[in-house]
Amino acid sequence: MSGRALVVDDHIEMARVVAEFLTDLGWRCTTVDSGGAAIAALGADAFDVVITDLRMADIDGLDVLAAAHRVDPDLPVLVMTAFGAIDSAIEVMARGARHYLTKPVRLEELRLHVDRALGERRLRLDHAALRRAVDGGVGALVGRTAPMVALRALIERVAPSGAPVLIRGESGTGKELVARAIHAGGPRRDGPFVAVNCSALPEALLESELFGHARGAFTGAAGARAGLFVEAAGGTLLLDEIGDMAPGVQAKLLRVVQLGEVRAVGSDESRAIDVRLIAATHQDLEARIAAGQFRADLFYRLNVVPVLVPALRERGDDIPLLAAEFFARSRARNPHSPAQRLAPEVAHALMQDPWPGNVRELENLIERLVVIAAQPTIGVGDLAACRPSIARPAGLFTTTEPLRTLRELEDEYVAHVLARCDGNKTRAAEALGIDVSTLHRRLRRDG
Fold it and tell me: Residue 412: is it exposed, middle or buried by C-beta count within 10 angstroms (0-12/13-18/19+)?
């Protein structure tokens, strides 16, 4: 395990001894001989750990510690000193140092604390990245509608438990994202999150993937494999599309769930596992049980905490938020695209579609619109080219469309014309046949 280290000691020879030791372990080290130089280095570069002397002539190690935590509150700092008084140790630890080392520093002890500090830092960074992904609005969890508020509240209640969870919902609703949110919010958040699609692998290969195999267990098994249950130890294993799992694998999975141990294919020995199990499916498991295609006893073991992810048509008012989120992400992935905005009437048109492919289908459509865009504003015409079924049928009105007020129709058409004119109010006023001052007054009135 290695990273970037800043080593600070006003006796530069000591700093070099520490740096050379860490360099031999694969670390990239910066050495400085004063607290002032250390603070300057912290402002100029990024580090994974800081190792600093406590007593220095100009600025002492406590000031370096404070500067490090101003740059990054989670940056681990190890403090060295020849003064091993207990009061110094208490002050250093109280101010947030990761550990306190007395000189002469035992290098193997330093290695232990540096590796531990870096490991914990990386776990925190990985967890923070996952939380940003979940909280920052990736697909399925964006929304203000009642079904989404209820789903997020359920995730918060379910996450701290270690109980098995069965996530159900149509394809494309974001079941894996919900599983990741449950993992990230629970006590196993620092452990691995491992996912496998049970419908993507044939029965024999899925069995080997899940439970592992011994060397020589079958043709081609040149070496032993631990399996995903073992790989997910201390974390979470997601069995996606479990409704498509073959009966033989179901029977072996039931034994694992019941006994908390796994036996590799071709092995006579069982191995204890410590894994939180989450299953997901779009299938009607009760119907598959009735048809003899899914084990009822396995269903009851997995369905301890049921979580239902709503279809997009059940949360239509979230579509404008989702479209805006996907548009921003797609623009970041496609900086060459001229697209700068979605016209207001696009969101209204998107809300009229039943979205059989759910959130995934909406995301793919927005990506397609951004990739092929020829103008800064994506309008209903562009939408019709990509997805004719969403565009308004020929004629201004339909017999099934809800009745709207004249004011609403006027507002929609003004927004449409402005979008077609790329926000140019003079051109829009000409197209509308009104004076530009009238258009300005109308826009001010409507906010």
Answer: middle
